[in-house]
Structure formats: structure tokens, C-alpha cells
Amino acid sequence: MNPDVLVAVFLTVITASTPLLLAALGELVTERAGVLNLGVEGMMLMGAVVGFAVTLTTGQWGLGVLAAALAGAGLALVFGVLTLTLVANQVATGLALTIFGIGVSSLIGAGFVGKPLPPLPRLAVPGLSDLPVVGRLLFGQDLLVYLSLVMTGVVAFVLNRTRIGLVLRAVGQSDVSAHAIGYPVIRIRYGAVLFGGVMSGLAGAYLSLAYTPLWVQEMTAGRGWIALAIVVFAAWRPGRALVGAYLFGGITILQLYAQGAGWLPVPSQIFSMLPYLATILVLVIISAGPWRRRLDAPACLGKPFRPAA
Amino acid sequence: MAFRIEPRRAPPASLFYLTPVLAVAVTVVLGALLFAALGYAPGATLYHFFVSPLTTVNGLAELVLKATPLAMIGVGLAAGFRANVWNIGAEGQLTLGAIAGGMTALELIDVDAPWVLPLMALAGVAGGMAWAAIPAFLKVRFDVSEILTSLMLTYVAGLLLALLVHGPLKDPTGYGFPQSAMFAPSANLPMLVNGTRLNAGALVGLAVVLGAWLVLARTIVGFQIRVVGEAPAAARYAGFSAPRIVWLTLLAGGGLAGLAGVFEVAGPIGQLVPSISPGYGFTAIIVAFLGRLHPVGILLAALLMALSYIGGENAQVAVNLPRAATGVFQGLLLFVLLASDFLVRYRIRLARPARAAP
Amino acid sequence: MDLGESAPAPRLSLRGIVKRFPGVVANDAVSLDVRQGEIHGLIGENGAGKSTLVKIIDGVLQPDEGEILWQGRPVTIPDPRAARRLGIGMVFQHFSLFEAMSVVENVALGLDDPPPRNRLAAEIRDVAADYGLPLDPARDVHTLSVGERQRIEIVRALLQKPRLLIMDEPTSVLTPQEVERLFATLRRLAGEGCSILYISHKLQEITALCERATILRGGKVVAACDPRRETAGSMAQMMIGAELRTVARRSGAVVGAPRLVVEGLDLPASDPHGVALKGIGFEVRAGEIVGIAGVAGNGQGELEQALAGERPAARPEAIRIDGRPAGRLGPDERRAAGLCCVPEERNGHGAVPGFTLVENGILSAHHRRGLVGGGLIRLRKARAFAAEIVSAFDVRTPGVDAAASSLSGGNLQKFVVGREILQGPGVLVVSQPTWGVDAGAAAAIHAALIRLAGEGAAILVISQDLDELLMLSDRLAVINGGVLSPPRPTDAMSVEEIGLLMGGVHGVDPAPAEAAHGV
């Protein structure tokens, strides 16, 4: 294979991995604070449709990306009010978020199906982007790709090196203790949930503005759920989330290439199953592996908390 | 603060069963506001959504037809939810049931015998169970979240069905459409009301609901399911095996979803096509919650959700409301229901309460 | 209220504090003063309102009525941060620690403006060394013993240079020797001018440590006294509000054949925080009550689960019930063989809070009382059984259809104990029979256990309440780090010796050979 093909393959891997990474980082922060939001798929869809609609109508992709983030945050806020303020079951509320997100995004997007949009502009670095091979890979990506990589580092730094990260982890480990020491558990969790919403919204925007770029009903196709699996795979660590996202992105692209190239005489649907089957396989390996460490999971994950008055 | 919120020590049962009704009412109001915001006349839209389907025999028959899979799946899922087993892949189990039942029908396409239909039903149940057995095994053996595995398998099931109807099961005389041959008459459910699509599956569905009521309310198995869900440590103490309950509830949920799948292909559809259900497996999750995980409540909730499907189609024709409105209504209802639970578990009183008795 | 010119204002004054919860007034017009540099005792039974009062002082809860004065000035304390800013340090009964974090991280979380990690670690080492509380800042909390965990809380409080240190039941997890060390630290702090509010229901501790004490009963202040001039008995009378029942120590029990025999029972830890059981061996004979003492978290929970059958043993012979190997049997089969069990935790383990009493009766008694037939629940029989428990054990409840969560702790405990006793077990394993239970219910439960033993059952009581064990048991063993000391006649053991065993100090027995008789 010549280097140009390899670069092209890796470029597509980046596009397939970026939405997974963005969504997984958001959910990772949410879960580190002890909240399980299963509505990633719904929030991504809202981000995708709102980002697409705003970009198409205003012609400003910057506004579209911003609107997508806000749309994700809006749905996350609904989740927060229900699970944090009204102490509703987090699993059920997350499912409701996904069902609602599918419905509302289809409703909003009904008029936008099939409309074309130029993909997100690539932010070229003069000089560097023209370098052979690495130029296009490293210095010719769009804003959201860079953002996803930068955010991996930022999230890791904030969680492990800053006070707010320490408090956030404390809230996820023991809400009762954090409350007893005097930390505003609910407020911190709202923050983490909203961050998750923003990141999911951006992940959705990436799909409809850069990956395809089109609006198609339910275009996330389970990526929100795969992002949830990546968080488990990553053992709640940002660096490993990056590895996980690129692993799944790679599998997605691999199966697309395999379908296109006709490497094996099997129906295309078999290849399409691969990302979903890989998710299950990875979950099994993580859960059954000898390195399994229960301490990794935030101890309060998914448990309701309400301080006594 | 103007009022204070206190947890109730023992939530009253009346509120528990009353809040879903309240939630429906609030959702209808919210829905009307949403329709108005989207530029549809709220009164007319609501009428076409919720009332006009109930004014014709055909409308009522369609209502029961669509409520049947929702109730059957909802009851199966409710057993799991009671035990904190979160099977959200009923859609995939339904698909596998349809595939297994449908393949049985196609295999026996030349046989005209009364046992064809029961055999299809058995195959469908087995197909759904087999699909649900995967998350059950992974949960019990490796402690893998059944939420993610059952959902991933739904996507796999959809692709498997597509693969089959595009390939080995494609009707050679079907002008290249991705669908199987039509089933033989003996592989179709008998009709209940002439001139409608309502079939005998509804009676089976009703029996399933009643049977589930008996099992959940009066047997030791139903008791065990509730203990495992409410207090896992107490279940261990009592000697109730949680893995057994995981298996039992997932197999029950998968089997019933599989049966619902067979009833779709042996009923209104009559062949295998790439898309068998308009999301019954997901809507049944809402049905289970709205029905308070109680079989009778689930029956009522299934009828309401069926109405939202038919109403959505109706409103699409009558006032050009997008089909997606059905999904919005369903999601909104679940939100409102979850929010209303707060009223069940907490008491809201004014800031200066009467002096509590010592 | 006259604060004389000469006397400085008390460091903390509470004036008429009222706090209500649904159905109960936890604090009813509570007033007290804590002077500068004094060790002030706050005494009361479980449920007297001590913890609520402490949470109000610490800003975790807000009072419904009343006033808080700090050095003579009225203050409101909206949250624990505000309390810290005033100079109030807090050491919790149930530690507010984060298991998967290091000691430094835990301390940093408790400070409002912590220095950088390295400097904080150095400060922790300094304070720890200064007060004789050895502590490694880099260790993760889940690897520490209970005593070490308490040191984190104390060091955390000391780093803030508190003017008032609140200790909420600090000794319930310590051995007698560790308690002595803690007291030395507290006396030194008080000598340096720090006020200490010391909460306990252990009267000996109050007399040994405090200059003044306030006694709470049913949410009200019933007395204030100088503990040095009182006896434990007189304070107990004020605390309980009735003549202290001196329960005669059980003696001269008629002991028959062994009914529960445990031999070489090993059980690996179930989770990273757990304790492994190592070579547990003892027997309980018909008519006998054997007690197991120990500091919390030394394998009591694991032993209870191993005996109940919640976690099966490796060998069938490790546990024998009436001679029958039972090590591999599940809880149901062990109940059928005659072993019933009352777990330590009522809510969610021994009973399902959201279930009715009828359903909670079915939970463990469905087999021995025949409450299920052909897979169907026999509702009438189940109701009758629940009613039988309620009347025989004087469970205060509106009816058998009331939810378990609506009962008070003592009434639910009576129900759970009654449910097991009315199944007529040959062997009864009871864990913490009177934890968080009022004195009346505790006496009733003790009497019922003694009666059951008199009928020929073998009873094993696992408890952290040493007084309870000394009163109930014929023989006593101590569990430490998953190892059980050989049981010996209670009369032959001194409190000091038990304390040393609880702290893991073995081999102080003057005649080690004698220990072999126990098994």
C-alpha cells in the first residue's frame, strides 16, 4: 500500500473516531461525578440536527457548532432536573432522553432531510499543512477534531491535577461524605451532566457537519451507546478513552473498506455488524479480564442522592 | 424557601397508581403547546391524534392490534425491571422471533396443517429467548451490563434480518424486492373481526397479561423477582438466586418479544420484510413504566401507546403533522411520568408546618 | 442570661434549638454551653438526638428554631464550610472518607484552601508526629485500618487549628488501648485551649474524660452535670429515664450436645475492602449462648454471611448443623436444616423496607412455616404468621400491611428477631441484635434470646457492644483480621484481655494451653 492510501485511511479513521471521543469524554466526566446518563444517543441526535439546521439556515458553521452544544446541554439539563432535583431513576430517565431525542430530532429535521452542506472547513496551518504525509494528518483537520484531542488532555489534567477535579471525583465516590464535608453535591453533578451534554451535542454536530455532512434520521446509529461502552472500556480514564474511541473508529473504517473492497465473499451486513459485536466483545474482555479493578468505577454511579433538609 | 420537601416513609399506593393518569393529562397539555408552537392548530391536532381513531370500528381494531405486541413485550420487560434487569433490546428479540417464526413458515410453505401456526409461535419464542440469552449469559458469567449488550444486539438483529431478506430468504418471484415470499394461509393468524386486521394474537396477548399478573402477584417466583430488585442483599439472605432471576426475566422478556415478532409477520405483515416493527420494543419500555410494572396497568398503557401510533398516522394524513410527533409524545410522557414520581416519594408542604406530634 | 465580666463568653452556646423530621422532633428546645478549653460530654441513647444536634452545629442541617452563639455572637452556619471558617472541626462517627483516594487527597478535600500536594503531605506528617498519630499521606484509604482512618479525620480537623473540635462517637470502632491514646490527644488539645464536644453513649468514657456533660433524652436536655461527681449508674438513670434494669448475668445454663460446629472455615475476601476469614473454628452447644466480640470490619459481616449460607464454604464439613455437613448448602437449605439468622443490617438485608410486614414474614420463613404451596403464596397463612410475630414480640405497627420502612428501628428489629425465633430454629446466629434499638426493645430482644437458649437452641451472638456480650454469653471469642480467638468462658476473661484480643495482640494469655479447652 502506498503512503497516500494509508494517509487517506487514517484520515477517515480520525473522522470516525472523533464523534466517539467527544461523546465518551463528556460521559466520562458525568460518570466520574457519579451520574449515569444513558441519553448520550439522544443528546447526540439533538446536537446533530440543531447543528445542521443552524448552519444551513445561517450559513455560519461556528453558530451551528455552538447551537449543537447548547442543544446537547438543553437535553442534559432536562436529565439533570429529573434525576438530580427530582431524584428520578437515572436508567429510566436516560432511556427517556434517547427516545425523546430520536423523536424531537426527527421532528426538527423533517425539513432538512437530503439537503447538502459543505463540510466543516479544515483549519490549515500555513506551511505545516503542506508537509508530506504528516501535513494532512496533523495540521489539516477541522476544529472539532482538534477540540476532541485537546479536550482529552484538558479533562485528564482537570480530573487529576486540579481542585475542581478532586472535588468532582469525591462527589462520584461518596456523595454522602462530600455533602458532609460541605460540597454542593447536586450543583457539581449538574455541572458534570451539562458538560456531558455539551460534548454529546458537539459529537452530534461533528456527524452532521463533518462526517457525512448531511442530516439523516437516527444518523447516530448507536454511536451514543458505543461511547458509553468506551467509558467502561477506558476504566473512566481520558487517555484510555482516546485509545478506545480510535479502536472503534478503526473498526468502523475497516469494515467499510472491507465492504467496499470485497475482501471476503460475505454479505455487507456481516461487516456492518462488526462495530456492535466488537463493543460486546470489548465489554466482556474488560469485565472478565484479570486486570479488572472494581475500584475504577465511581462508587456512587447511578445512585440517587438527596440531601436531608 | 416558600415550602419544604420531606421524604414519605411509606408512599401511598393510591398516589402510585394515580400519578400516571396525571402524567398523561400533563403530557397532552404539553403536546398541545408543542403542536401550537410548531404552527398546528392544537385543538384539531389533538382531536386527530387522540379521538378520531376511536370513532371507527377499524380504528378500534387497529388500536387493539398495535396494543397487543406492546402489552406482551411490556409485561415481559416489567418482570425484568422489577428485578433491576434492564433489558432494553426487546426490539432485537422481537426481530429474532420474527425471523425464527418466519423461517419456520417459509420452510412449511407447502404444508396446510393446524400445527404450523403453533410451531411458528414456538420457534418465535425460542428465537427471542436465544437472543436474550446472550445478555443473560454475559451478565451472569462476566457481569457485563445487559443494557449495552441487549441494545447492541438489536442493531445486529436488524442487520441479520436485512441480510436474510436481501439474500437467502428473498422471494425469487418478488421482482427483486428485499422481502420473502408471502406465507401460506395456514401460517397466518385467524382474523377476529371481518374487514379489519385484528387477529387472534390479541387473545393470546390478553392471556399473557393475565398469566403474568398471576405469576407476579401470587407466586413465590414473582415474590423473588421483587426481592431481587428491591433489596439484593435481602434476596441473598433469603436464599433467592439473583443469577437465576436474571436468566428467568431475560428469557421471559425475550420469549414474549419473540412471540410478538411472530404475531407481526403471521398477522398484519404476512411475510418477512426488512422492517417489522415501528419500534414496539422501545415503546414497550415506556409502556412498562407507565403501567407501573403492573400487568393491568401495562394493558392500559399499551392501549394508550397504540393510540399514539395510530393518532400519529392519522394526524399526518389529516393535518400533515410529521410522523416523528409520535416519538416526541412518547418521550415527553415518560419524562413527565418520571417527574411525577417525585410526588409519590416526597411530600411538599408549606414552610411553617403544624407542630409535629412528639 | 448573665455573662459576668470576669467569665469570658462560652465558645459555643446553643439556645432553644428545635429540629423536626417527619413524624419526630429530633431536637426539642436544646440549650447548652461549651466553654473555652473544656471537654464537654453530650450523652444520650441511640435516637436521643445527638447526631442531629451535631449536624446543626456543623452546618449540615439547619435548625427550625433557636439560636447559635459563637464566642457570644449570634451566628448562622449555612454549611460545613462556614463551620470550618468559624473554627469548628468535626470528626464523624461514620467517616466521611473517600476509599479510592489517598490520605493527602482526603485531607485536601476537607480543607478550604489546601496548600500544594507536597507541602500538605509534609504538614500532615508534622501534625501526625506532633500528636503521636502515625499516618502515611501517600497511602490509599481503602488499605488502612479503621483506627488509621479515624486518624485522617482527626489530622484533617487539627490542620485547621480548630477552636472547637466535635467528636461524634469516636471510640465505637477502637480497641480499649486505642481509646486511651485518643483520650491523651484530646486532653492535650484541651490544655492548649481548644474546646471539645465529645458525643458518646458510653458513660465510662464520659466520666474519664469530661468536665461537664449535657444529657439528652427524646430530643430534650434532661440534665446537665459534672461527670466527675456522678457515677456511671446515676448518669445512666438520667439517660434512660428509668431505674436501670440490672439484667442478671446468665449463669448456670444447661448445656447439651453441640448443634453448630465450625471447623477450619476459610473464606476469601469478596471485594478489595473486605476481610478474609482464616481457619475459623468453634462450636455452640444446645442451650448455650456464645458471643463474638471485635472491632467493626474485622470479618464479622463475612462470618455472618458464611454461617447464613450467603457465601458457601469450600468444604461441606467446615460447617455442621446438628452433625450434618452444611458448608455447601445455601441459606434456604440451612434454614431447612435448622439454622436461622438475623443479619446486622435490618434495612435491605434482614428486611425489605418497601415490603409489608406480611411480605417480610414470607422472606425468610416461607419454607419453615409452609407459607408457599405449589409455587403459590398462601396469603392467609402468611398474614397469620406476621400477626403472630407482631403480638408475640410486641411490635408497634398500625397493622401487618404496614411497610417495614414505616416502623421504628427498634420495632423492625423486634419483628426480624421474632420472625426467626418463631421458626423454632435449632441454631440461631444473631448479628448486632440491639444496634440502634431503644432500651425497652433491647431488653425484650435479650430476654427472647435467653428464653430460646433455655428451650435448647444454640445461639451465636456477634456484637460490637461488649456490655451486651458480657451480659448474654456463656462463652466469648474475639474476631480480629478474620481470625477468631478460641472461645473461653466469659467469667474467665477480663475486659483488658478482650481489648488486647480486639486489637490483635495475642499471646498475652497467661496460660495459652487453657485456650484449647474452648474448642
Brief overview:
With 309 residues, chain A is mainly α. Chain A contains twelve helices and no strands.
Based on the coordinates given, report the CATH architecture of chain A: Orthogonal Bundle
Largest sheet of chain A: none
CATH class of chain A: Mainly Alpha
Rg from alpha-carbon coordinates of chain C = 24 Å
What CATH calls the topology of chain A is ABC transporter involved in vitamin B12 uptake, BtuC
Q: Strand-and-helix sequence of chain A, N→C?
A: HHHHHHHHHHHH
Structure classification of chain C: alpha/beta
Straight-line distance between termini of chain A: 67 Å
Distance between the termini of chain C: 64 Å
- Determine the oligomeric state from the structure: heterotrimer
Unreliable spans of chain C are: 1-5, 506-519
Compute the number of strand runs of chain A. Answer: 0
The general outline of chain C is globular
CATH class of the largest domain in chain C: Alpha Beta
Which architecture of the largest domain in chain C per CATH?
A: 3-Layer(aba) Sandwich
Radius of gyration of chain A: 20 Å
Alpha plus pi helix count of chain A: 12
Structure report:
The complex is a heterotrimer of chains A (309), B (358) and C (519). With 309 residues, chain A is mostly helical. Chain A has helices at residues 3-32, 40-58, 61-85, 90-109, 134-139, 143-161, 163-173, 175-181, 185-211, 223-233, 238-261, 268-288. In chain A, α1 packs across α11 (238-261) and α2 packs across α9. A two-stranded antiparallel sheet of chain B has the order 1-2. Chain B has one domain (11-349): Orthogonal Bundle (ABC transporter involved in vitamin B12 uptake, BtuC), CATH 1.10.3470. In chain B, α3 crosses α12, α4 packs antiparallel against α5 and α11 (280-290) crosses α12. With 358 residues, chain B is an all-alpha fold. Chain B has helices at 13-37, 42-51, 57-82, 90-107, 116-142, 146-166, 201-218, 220-230, 232-238, 242-269, 280-290, 295-319, 325-345; strands at 3-7, 346-350. Mean pLDDT of chain B is 90; it is low at 353-358. In chain C, α4 (117-130) crosses α5 and α13 runs parallel beside α14 (439-454). The longest helix of chain C has 16 residues, at 176-191. Chain C folds into two domains: 12-240, 3-Layer(aba) Sandwich (Rossmann fold), CATH 3.40.50; 258-349 and 421-518, Rossmann fold. Residues 1-5 and 506-519 of chain C have low confidence and may be disordered. The N and C termini of chain C lie far apart (64 Å). In chain C, strands 13, 16, 19, 20, 21, 22 and 23 form a seven-stranded mixed β-sheet that branches. In chain C, strands 6-7-8-3-9-10 form a six-stranded mixed β-sheet, with helices on both faces. A four-stranded antiparallel β-sheet of chain C has the order 2-1-4-5, covered by helices on one side. Chains in contact: A-B, A-C, B-C.
